[in-house]
Predict the structure.
Amino acid sequence: MSKRILIIGACGQIGTELTLKLRDINGKNAVIASDIREGSKELMKSGPFELVNAMDYDSISKIIDTYTITEVYLMAAMLSATGEQFPAKAWELNMTSLFNVLNLAKEGKIKKLFWPSSIAVFGPTTPKENTPQETVMEPTTVYGISKQTGERWCEYYHKKYGVDVRSIRYPGIISWKTKPGGGTTDYAVEIYHSALLIGKYTSFLKKETKLPMMYMDDAIEATIAIMNAAPEKIKVRSSYNLAAMSFTPEEIAKVIKKFIPEFEISYNADFRQPIADSWPSSIDDIRAREDWGWQHKFDLVKMSENMLHNLHAKYN
Ligand code: AKB
């Protein structure tokens, strides 16, 4: 049977670019985009789209039957900052959507499943630098708790029912096409937009807050690579640590200043500061590199060049 992909949450930051890339690779009709609302013009024009709520089991099941779907990428989630405003909703969305696809896979309706986890699974008692794959995990956000719980369930469904579920612990993802929403790492996207539009930015994290980050191109590469790897190479069935770079607001501002010398940064830490403080500063992703050949391409300078180039073209 040929590969037919359903992306749930296709209009979000990662979902948009993942859908476009998977359509380039597999052809537009082999990739069905779905979300609770319509997305960018580029996404909507690029191939089939279905309106669906990730918490609605029956609707997802129907789409899977209609399009004879073989693989699902579940990209819908409420992120860390919004999750702290709406804890019950965050838990409900993040867990119900995961159980829906895990159960559909258990019933044999999905052959392969991608579900993203996050560095938010770690907490203040986790080693902060070079956080290992296996370590203390005591997350303090609802989002982090939902991701950690989700990881346990993924491993359980794999071991108990043979579900082929694959996962990555995404760091903060930086991209120019679609803005992120409701995350603690979002400052690292906002800063580029503000630098180009108004030449200044007020960071909601303190200048010395170092967090693990990744450019979208690398995140998409990794997501497709883990899904294409032979099943025996995927030795971690909870979720893989994944890393590319780590930096502080002060460091990213310094690099932006190289391209836009008049750029100014100021700092006004808010409720997202304690979330950031509870997360690692850098991640050890040796298992992903050894098991399925992960390699990142973008560092802070290369990413900044690419972001500013693409955003400049978008705004002019
Ligand atoms: C967030 O900030 O909530 C996300 C994440 C690190 O998972 N970007």
User: Anything to note?
Assistant: The radius of gyration is 19 Å. The longest helix spans residues 87-106. DSSP finds twelve helices and 14 strands in the chain.
